[in-house]
Design a protein that fits this description.
heterodimer, A: about 120 residues, mainly beta, six-stranded mixed sheet, four-stranded antiparallel sheet, B: about 110 residues, seven-stranded mixed sheet, about 50% strand
Chain lengths: ~120, ~110
């Protein structure tokens, strides 16, 4: 069965510092990959997604992610974090084949931003 | 504005009672999903529906039921058989087509069993 690992449960960074959130997946073939963000008590918002082509993907709010097939990773990055980026971040995958498009989520990384 | 609405935002239930959570979308999406979110566990799929009058169990369907009588609506009933129903429930929808079409999420309903 496919799985998604986000090894960091909680990360604290200073405002203006760079950020990298890790995501590793376990699946036989390259899946479709997504990053979502969730503010407290809210729904999820899509930051970016990857399904083919350029392995560096640009998203909203200044985020980017790089797909590395050899490492089965899809890490999320931001060059300079803003206080409003404090939230929980989820990596998710869906199989390349199949029609149901059932997402498998990681357990999330909670980002705290200090001023 | 197109989007997904969930109601109520907060719901309190006594043990032994069934409750129904509402999910409506005006995005004209074919597929709809229900997830349960618990602290530290990410999101887990309860039920999903790819077309009207059809739905499938997800990973944790026991104690839940759904219906899909209209394309826009996908209500979730939490039955008394669900042993630990206190959680945050999220509804999502997705446009039909390739798996790269992302899911759009509603704002969620927080259910508390008293």
């Amino acid at each position: 069965a496919q799985s998604v690992t986000q090894p960091d449960i909680h990360i604290t960074v200073s405002e203006g510092a760079s950020l990298e959130l890790r995501c590793n997946y376990s699946y036989g073939a390259t899946p479709y990959l997504f990053w979502y963000v969730q503010s407290p008590g809210q729904g999820l918002q899509l930051l970016l997604k990857y399904f083919s082509g350029d392995t560096l993907v640009q998203g909203i709010k200044g985020f980017e992610a790089e797909f590395k097939r050899s490492q089965s990773s899809f890490n999320l990055r931001k060059p300079s974090v803003h206080w409003s980026d404090a939230a929980e971040y989820f990596c998710a995958v869906v199989p390349y084949t199949g029609t149901a498009s059932k997402l498998t989520f990681g357990t999330g990384t909670r980002l705290q931003v200090t001023l | 504005d197109g989007g997904i609405t969930q109601s109520p935002k907060y719901l309190f239930r006594k043990e032994g009672q069934n409750v129904t959570l509402s999910c409506e979308q005006n995005l004209n999406h074919d597929a709809m999903y229900w997830y349960r979110q618990d602290p530290g566990q990410g999101l887990r799929l309860i039920y999903y529906s790819q077309i009207v009058n059809d739905f499938q169990k997800g990973d944790i369907a026991e104690g839940y039921s759904v219906s899909r009588e209209k394309k826009e609506s996908f209500p979730l009933t939490v039955t008394s058989a669900q042993k630990n129903p206190t959680a945050f429930y999220l509804c999502a929808s997705r446009r039909a087509g390739g798996a790269y079409n992302e899911q759009f999420f509603g704002p969620g309903t927080r259910l508390t069993v008293l």
